[in-house]
Amino acid sequence: MIRLLVIVVVVAAIAVALVVVGSWLVDGARSLGTGIADRVRRVGSSTQQSLPADSDPQLDTPNQPLAQLADDLRAASARRWARCRAIQEQAEPAESEQYRQLAAHRWDPDIVEPDRLRNESIGQIAATAGLVADRVSDYPAWKLDFFDRHGVRVDLAAEVTALATSAANVRDQISLLGDPPTNLAADHDVVTTYAAKAQLLSRRLDGLVERLGALGEYQQIVAAIQQRQDKRDWLDRVSAIDDFENEVDAQWDATEAGRMRNTADESEMLASIYLDALAPLAKTLGRE
After folding, report:
1. What is the pTM of this model?
2. Residue ranges of region Disordered (predicted)?
3. Domain-by-domain residue ranges, the chain?
4. Which of 31, 133, 181, 281 is the most buried (most CB within 10 A)?
């Protein structure tokens, strides 16, 4: 009976302890949830205060088209630069400098160092045109009447003059357009007009590079004609070698070589017989 009473008391004590601990856990969870909520609210409040002032879209709107325009112009300039370099690599080396001098003079009559044009984004169009024309004029095939007979000879001087002069005109117009006006960057009409003219001049340069590429393709055609001419000249030169006569002569030489070897073998055999017969006679004559 006493043992049962003790057990009941112990169980009751454990139950009370569990109730107390449970109440503590509930209170702690409530406090923790309240603290986290307060912290989230404070962080959210501070984040909203630190965001850029983009509530007024007019602050960034004028700069967005100009930034995109700058990216587009840089990409177009890089494409033109790479195209000109590729055309130059196909045309090099060129011995004469007649058309490069012409291109430099059309670009700037007072220029002192024509080669520096190749390092300018627009000047390289003029420099490349002169280089390609010089390479074409270097080919001996360029002097053939083939081009005149078929009406396919390009006026290199006129083409170089047109490309260099046009490139110089676009250069002057780009200089006139200048950089975007910072004091009018918020004016929609100014930004739109500037972008339209800048894109127009960029397309003008694209057209010049396209025309320059056509001149480079013409140079490659002249190079192919030169290669065919060299091949024909070589074949004509070696055609003087008669295959049949040389084949007959080769067989005759082989036959003569065999006859010569046989003669040599016979001579050696006869010589040995003669010397063997002559030796006893020489001894006999020596004793007498």
Report:
1. 0.66
2. 43-62
3. 62-238
4. 133
